[in-house]
Amino acid sequence: MTGRLILVRHGETQGNVAKLLDTRVPGLPLTERGAAQAKVFGESLLRPPRALFSSEALRARQTARYIEAATGVAAMVLAGLHEVQAGDLEGAHTEEAHQTFQRIYRAWHEGDLTMRVPGGESARDVLDRFLPAIAELRETYLSPDGAEGDVVLVSHGAAMRLIGRQLTDVQPPFTTNNHLDNTETIELVPTSGDGWQCIRWGRFTPPFGYEVAPTSDDPMG
Question: Using one digit for the tens of pLDDT, what is the confidence trace for 163-187?
Answer without folding.
Answer: 999 999 999 999 998 889 999 999 9
